Amino acid sequence: MVKGKISLKKSGAGFETIRKSLELLAKKEVLVGIPEDEATRENGDIINNAELLYVHTHGIRTSEMRAEMQKNMDNGMKYSKAHSMYIREHGSPLFRVPPRPVLEPAIEDSKEIIAEELKQANISALDRNPAQAEAHLNKAGMLAQSAAQNWFENPKNGWPPNAESTIKKKGSDVPLVDTNELRKSITYVLRDK
After folding, report:
1. I want to staple 39 with a disulfide (CB 3.0 to 4.6 A). Which of 50, 57, 140, 184 is the partner?
2. Are 66 and 23 in contact (CB under 8 A)?
3. How far lies 178's CA from each of 46, 49, 158, 183, in Å?
4. In this predicted structure, what is the pLDDT of residue 178?
5. pLDDT digit string (tens) for 110-139?
6. Is residue 147 within 8 Å of 107, Cβ to Cβ?
7. What H or E segment, with its residue span, contains residue 189?
8. Does residue 37 sit in helix, strand or coil?
9. Nearest by Cα to 42 from 187, 171, 179, 183
10. Segment (H or E) for 26
11. Confidence of residue 87 (pLDDT cuts 50, 70, 90)
12. Residue 140: its pLDDT value, please?
């Protein structure tokens, strides 16, 4: 084994290019979800796809939870007015809807392949190739989007089955899969912070 010192030069054109490339990468973010401007539902519901996904992720709120939400909103926390109205309008009769989270568990389940693309984005930035770094960020976004869309029928989701009344109404025992409108509305965006 050879022991020695390694010197790192922190100046010059190469270092400056790498620094700029890393700064550009640090200014990017990949977001997965349902963008507000693409959230409307085809059937004209008062609740949009983003709000519907939120409800299914967290379940319907009890009156105590709604009171806490109102207190938070009064103190400046942002909840959409449509979401607040929907909860107030439908209240506790819908409390039987169990949480069926999508985004976080789906991305957690696929974190290794997503993380590999993020790693490759960093490597490309270090190699002074910002276009390739951005391509890897886009691929990470596509992988996360696909994981979330596929989560609806992934047996790992652990969702409780539909209630008998829901099965009779929609004719299926598969939770959240009816028109596929909600699932198809999940996407990713790559944007500057």
Report:
1. 50
2. no
3. 18, 13, 18, 10
4. 76
5. 999 999 999 999 999 988 898 999 999 999
6. yes
7. strand 187-192
8. helix
9. 179
10. helix 13-26
11. very low
12. 97
* C-alpha span between 29 and 130 (Å, rounded): 14
CA-CA distance, 172 to 117, in Å (whole number)? 37
Of 138, 74, 121, 65, nearest in space to 95 by CA? 65
> Which residue is listed with tokens 């997965």?
32
Q: How far is CA 150 from CA 118, 142, 147, in A?
A: 21, 12, 5
Mean pLDDT, all residues of the chain: 79
Backbone torsions φ then ψ of 31, nearest 5 degrees: -115, 140
Considering only residues 54 and 119, tell me which one the structure prediction assigns the higher pLDDT. Answer: 119
Rounded Cα distance, 91 and 95, in Å: 7
Element of type H or E holding 181: helix 181-184
Residues 6+ apart with CB under 8 A from 121: 25, 133, 134, 136, 137, 140
CA gap 121, 137 in Å, rounded: 6
Give me the pLDDT at residue 124, please. 93
